[in-house]
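Entry type: protein chain
Record version: 2
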Amino acid sequence: MANNVDATASVTDTTPGNSGLPADLKFTPHAVCSTVVNEYIDTLSVKKALGIDNADSRIIRIILLRKLDPITTLSDKEFLLAWWEVVKCHRALWKRGVHHRDVSPSNLMGYRLRGRFIGVLNDFDLSSIKESLSSIQGSPKGFERTGTVPFMALDLLKPDAIAGRVEHVYRHDAESFVWVLAWICLRYRKGKLLRKRRPLDEWLTVDAMGCLKEKTGFLAMLSTMGATRSHKKSFKVAFESLQVIMKFQIPSTPIPADDEVFEMLLQHHVLQKVLRRNISL
């Protein structure tokens, strides 16, 4: 099959840096170029060759994306700024109807441009587009239990959510950003994963209900938790945000609107020097 690839196929170039996008959307994956492998090769031809009776046909396209590095490689102010850039990008996308729904450390990436690390929200495989939810058969409806268990909101780890009776809303993704922040602050030092006495490992080995129990216990012991030296300032942000999450768990607490969630859970606790930083490219 590889012998049929047309190496001379035309390539669609794009300008580095996601130029032309609104400032708050530039922290998304950037396609450097793309090409159709061969106009005579499509999925229908492959299926017929394999004896698969399916009328669905798609053209095979190669997309080359900018190489990204995880933000776990960062420390101190540079790490917090990259995290904040991704938080703002996620909020902007959500308001435009693009719901990511899988916030985890491996999906917070970035690259260096002119000496500065640019945060990127990556991997939209589990995302949904609000406008298409009711019009496309089989599209996500918002009640699927999506996400990476250790970083999912507490409400999504409960039985009702597991059974598909809880809608995945902005507040849940916002909470995931806080869990990611705490996770990195406690487990990484100077861009390296701790080798010894690494906390929270048990979150990786339990199911949803088990993780709910572990994270609830973590919140009860929050005041005893200490971040690594390279993430002490960032952990102050996580600590204050986790206290808000604890308040949300009180049954009598009213659930605020999305903009208020963004302010209460995320923006209010970020260092003023980060909020004042001009992050437009």
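Comment: Residues 1-16 have pLDDT under 50 and may be disordered.
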